[in-house]
Fold each of these.
Amino acid sequence: MHYAGLCITETPPPPVDSGFSQSLFLRGKAYSPVNIFRGITGPLPVTVLNYTSLRTKKELAQLLAKERFDSVQIEGVHLVEYVDVIREVCPHARIVSDWHNIESEIVWRYAETAGDPLRKLMARRTAPMIERAENRLLRSCDAHSVVSAREREKLLLRCPDARIHVVPNGVDVSYYSDNQPVGNPAEILFVGSMDYHANVEAVVWFVASVWPILKAAIPGVVFRIAGRDPSPEVRALAAPDVLVTGTVDDIRPFYARAGATVVPLRVGSGTRLKILESMAAGVPVVSTRLGAEGIELQDKSDIFLAETPAEIAEALQRVLTDKVLADRLRSGGHALVNRLYDWPIVAAQLYSIHTGLRTDRSR
C-alpha cells in the first residue's frame, strides 16, 4: 500500500525513517513584546502566536495543494492554527496531533513553583488559554498520540470521544550505544536546552540545594551542565566545580565520561529524552519522580528515584561509589530502552496509526 504523509513540526524530525514522505519544519519566532502583549490579552497564548504566521499558512497551503497526502501530522498545540488550513486545502487527509507533553500542565505546574509574583501571574493567565487551545485541538484532529498512559487518561477526561494512542518518546539506541563509556566517577551530568524554564529551574535548585551536600560527601566531584543557549541564571552557576558548556556538537562524549546523570526536575510534563539517551549510552540515572514521569521504570533497577536534596545527594553518592549498583542501573536502563524505546519500535507504532486512519476511511 502506498502511503503519503506530511509531518509539520516545531522541532527537527527524528533521525529515523518514520514513513512520512515530507516534513515541514516551522521555527518559532522570538518572544517579541508584541506577541507577549497579544498572548496576555488573548485569546491565543503566546506559545501559539510564536508559531503562527500568514506567510507560513500560505506556504503550507501551497504544499498541500501540490501533493495529495493521506495524512498530516502536526506536532502539538503550538501548531493548532494550521488545522483549518489543512482541512480547507486537503479535506480528504486525516490529521494526527502528536503531543510531546500537555503544555497547559507544564504552565500550571510552573505557576505553583514560580517565585517571581509577575511570572506566577502570567503563568496563571496563560495556562487556561493553552488549555482552551488544547481542547480545540482534541476536537479538531482525527487521532492523537501521547507519550504516556497518564497523559492519555488526563486528555480523555477533557474529550472522551478523542481517539488517543500512547506512543512513547524514542531514542536511537545504537547511536548512543556505539559511544564507549569512560565513566568518570567524579563527574555528574545534566543535559537539556538551557533556555527552557523547567531545565533552568532544575539546575539552579540543584546547585543551591543538593550540590553543597554532595561536595561535602565526595571531594573533587564536578557537575557539568551541557545544553544550548544557557540562560543568565544558568551562566551565573559557572564555577571550578560547575561547568556550563553551552551548545555542543556531539553530546555522546559527555555521556561517556559521566559517572551519572541527574534529572532534578520539579516542573514539566511529557517524558524526558535525556533519561532515554542516558540509558542508551549506559550511564546510571538519578531523577525525581516527576523527572521520570511517564517512563516504564523500576526504581533501583533501571533508575534511582529521589526527591529531597538529602535524598538526591545520597542517591548520587551511592551511584558514584557503589560499582555493583551503578552496573545494575546501567544494565537495566539499557535493556529497557532496547525493549521499549528504540526509534524503529516507536516509529512502527506511529506509522500504524496513520495507515489505520487510511484503512478506516476506505471502509
Note: The longest strand covers residues 184-191.
Amino acid sequence: MAEIYFLSDFHLGAPDRTSSLVREKRIVSFLDEHAGDMSELFLLGDLFDFWYEYRDVVPKGYTRILGKLAELTDKGLPIHFFVGNHDMWMKGYFESELNIPVYHEPQTFERRGKRFLIGHGDGLGPGDKGYKFIKKVFRNPVCQALFGTLHPYAGIGLANYFSRKSREATGQGHEQHFLGEDKEWLILYSREVLKLEHYDYFIFGHRHLPIDFQLAPDSRYINTGDWIRYNSYAVFDGTDVQLKYQPA
C-alpha cells in the first residue's frame, strides 16, 4: 500500500551554497528512492532558508529540488506545502509552476479513517510573544509590498542576513533536546486543541527535533525533525505514523 510522507526543515541555502547543494542532492535522492512508495507528500515548511517571490523574480538556485517536485506532480503525486517562518513569502509560484497548493495556517486532513492537524508549527502555543509580533508584521500585505520595492539584490541580501541571525539565535541549545511535556509549546498547543476536538495525529515541523509524543490514548504529536542534523521524516502507512531516518 502506498504511504503518506511528511518532511520539513530543509533550510536550503544555509549555511552556504556548497553545503546546501550537498543537502539538496541528498533530499532529491531520497525523493527518487521513495517516490514509488508515496501516495501523497506533505512538506511542512522551511524548505528554504529564505524565499521571497517578487512579481517577476524568485531566488536563484534550488533547481534540483524544484525540478524534482515538478516532476512528481506532473506524474500525479499530490504534494502539499505549508509555509514556514523562513519561507512564508509565497505568492503563487508553487501553485502556478509546480501545481502545489500552499497553506499559511495549520489544516485538517482526513486520511484512511484518521484525522490529522498538519502545519509548520511556528507561533503556536503559549509564549514567544516577540516572534508572534514579528510574524504579524512579516505577513502584513503592506509590509510585504514595501519589501517588494527593494531591488532583489538588496532585498534578498538583507533577508539572508536576518535569516542567518534568526538561526544563530534559535539554533543553539534548546533545539537539541526534549524540554519536557510541560515546556514543549507544540505539545501544550496540541493539548489545548484536543480539549475542543479530536485529532489522531498532530504533525508539525519547525522544532528541528524528531519527537513522537503520546498526548492521549488515541492521539499523538509527531515532529518531523529536520534534514540538517537528523535526515528525519514521518510516514503514515494507513494504520500508524512512524518517525524514520534516512541514512546519511
Note: Helices lie at 17-34, 63-74, 93-98, 129-139, 141-148, 152-170, 185-194.
